[in-house]
Amino acid sequence: MTRTLLSFGHGYSARALARRLDEDWRIIGTTRSEDKAAALLAEGTEPRIWPGANLTPALDAATHLLISAGPSEDGDPVLAQLKDEIAARREQFTWVGYLSTTGVYGDHQGGWVDEDTPLAPSTRRGQLRVEAEAAWQAMDLPLHIFRLAGIYGPGRGPFAKVRNQTARRIIKDGQVFSRIHVDDIAQVLAASIAHPDPGAIYNLCDDDPAPPQDVIAYAAELLGMPIPPAQDFASAEMSPMARSFYAESKKVRNDRIKSDLGITLIHPTYRAGLKALLDSER
User: Fold this and answer.
1) 144 with 200: CB under 8 angstroms?
2) What is the spatial distance between Cα 154 and Cα 122, in angstroms, rounded to a whole number?
3) Any signal peptide, and if so, which residues (predicted)?
4) Dihedral, CA atoms, 37, 40, 46, 51, nearest 10 degrees?
């Protein structure tokens, strides 16, 4: 039987999932860009330029929904336009996945958080995610929420900046981040689709939260290039967006994806992930 995934905001993580699904799947993905639509078509995904396209036929066909599109001050963009249409079809969906962020937990001064940690975002981006999660939870769908740490993978990582010598090792005492390779995002989503558990919330991160300067240093070592000099966070020139990422420091637990979904991480540490990226380039 053909299963149909309708993927809203079919970007980096969703495309990685699509590569894992077998040929029995029909995948419809929305994008805002004509150029990206052509790329999706080449990958076997049926593109829809949205907002703009009439998505009623796609919703009629969908058995699974994936929402990667982020919220704005106007709320969740999918619910803003399609809430009633989605609600009217709730019985036909086997699985709904919402990609959120570990930013919903806020700052824990380097301490550990898990899926039961109270949500206390310290940035506006995190607050909007909390509101979007709640809006989707109120829809009475077979919803699964995935809170993603910092994403890296092919085309996304520190190597380019290290090579062109624009990488910076920003030092903020006690700062630590969790991260996740896109291949592991894809395998967790695929495992959840295979074993739905409506209402479940999962943290997606690897086993090795680390200071960001350590990741840059290791990338430089792998490339055989000089380690970029350290810069103090307080005096470093940074955009407000870049600086906001340093407003929160926490280590994220991933036990639930292992115990509930049987996940063995492909890239359990940033060292393993970066080495694999470099090996694949070569």
Assistant:
1) yes
2) 30
3) none
4) -40
Q: Is the pTM higher than 0.85?
A: yes
Are 192 and 144 spatial neighbours (Cβ–Cβ below 8 Å)?
yes
Q: Which two tokens stand for residue 65?
A: 């929904």
pLDDT over threshold 80, residue 1: no
pLDDT digits (tens, 9 = 90+) for 193-213: 999 999 999 999 999 999 999
**Angle between the 270-281 and 212-223 helix axes, to the nearest 10 degrees?**
30
242 pLDDT band, cuts 50/70/90, is: confident
- Residues ≥6 apart with Cβ < 8 Å to 37: 31, 47, 48, 49
Q: Which CATH fold would you assign to the domain 3-153+180-206+252-267? A: Rossmann fold (3.40.50)
- Report the pLDDT value the prediction gives residue 282, as an integer from 0 to 100: 85
pLDDT at 241 (0 to 100): 86
Query: Is 192 in contact with 202 (CB distance < 8 Å)?
Result: yes
Give the residue-averaged pLDDT of 105-134. 97
Which helix (H) or strand (E) segment holds residue 25: the answer is: strand 25-31
Cα–Cα separations (whole angstroms), residue 1 to 26, 89, 220, 279: 10, 19, 48, 38
Ranges of each domain in the chain = 3-153+180-206+252-267
| pLDDT category of residue 2 using cuts at 50, 70 and 90 | confident
Give the helix ranges, DSSP H, for 3-103: 12-20, 34-42, 56-61, 77-88
| Token pair for 229 | 């000099």
Answer yes or no: are the C-beta atoms of 14 and 66 closer than 8 Å: yes
